[in-house]
Structures are given as C-alpha cells and as structure tokens.
C-alpha cells in the first residue's frame, strides 16, 4: 500500500524532475501530467511533483473513484530529488515511501522483476 492506495502490478511512480509552481492544484497538475509527461493522470499511476524549495512535495493519483492530491512539507531538512532535467524519473514503490518519509531513496536500487522460472515439462 502506498499512502493508503493499494499497490497493483504495473503501478508506475513518476517524479517530474523539474520544479513546478506549487500554487497549481489538481487540475493544473493533471494538465502537466498530460502535456509534459505524456501520461494519463486517470490511469491509476502516482505522479510526484517538487517545489523550488526541496522541502515540499505534491503527489497526484487516481484512486478509482476520484483524483487525489497529497501534499507534504518537511519541518526540517529537505527531500532527496533526482537531478533537474526534462521529463520524469521512475521510482519503485519502496523508493516512493522513502522519498515521502524524507529519507534518501537513492540508497535503494529500483527492484527489477524476478527472473522467470523455467517450466518443468510434465
């Protein structure tokens, strides 16, 4: 579960690496997901946005019944962000949990899919 949203196979977590105007609400961020990230904000994926100051985060996600906007401001320190560039950076759900907690998520490599087991013929 990610912040109360159950994980599902194929769930994508995309971090917009460029800072955004934090006055934007869910409609403005949904438009950014469509235009800048070329994704569908209603697909059930998690989209993460950063402010110019590294101490604030916004997440946009569709929970199946509505669009949700989650915001957090750290009282001390800042979030660990990927380098500023165009596009988005993908994170695993574990990395997202660490990012949201204010921990350094770069210390955990993204987990790849387990290798396919060979099938044993009958």
Q: Return residue spans where pLDDT drops below 50 for at least 5 consecutive residues.
A: none
Order of helices and strands: EHEEEEH
Number of continuous helical runs: 2
What is the residue-averaged pLDDT? 83
What is the beta-strand fraction? 15-25%
* Alpha carbon gyration radius: 16 Å
Q: What is the spatial order of strands in the main beta sheet?
A: 4-3-2-1-5
Which class do the helix and strand fractions yield? alpha+beta
Q: How would you characterize the largest beta sheet?
A: 5 strands, mixed
Distance between the termini: 37 Å
What is the tally of beta strands?
Answer: 5
Please estimate the helix content: 10-25%
Shape: globular
């Amino acid at each position: 579960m990610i912040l109360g949203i159950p994980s599902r196979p194929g769930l994508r977590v995309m971090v917009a690496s460029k800072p955004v105007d934090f006055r934007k609400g869910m409609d403005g961020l949904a438009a950014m997901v469509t235009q800048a990230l070329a994704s569908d904000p209603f697909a059930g994926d998690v989209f993460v946005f950063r402010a110019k100051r590294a101490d604030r985060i916004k997440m946009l996600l569709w929970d199946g019944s509505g669009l949700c906007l989650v915001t957090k401001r750290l009282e001390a320190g800042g979030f660990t962000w990927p380098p500023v560039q165009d596009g988005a950076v993908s994170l695993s759900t574990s990395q997202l949990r660490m990012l949201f907690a204010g921990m350094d998520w770069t210390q955990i490599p993204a987990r790849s899919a387990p290798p396919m087991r060979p099938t044993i013929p009958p």
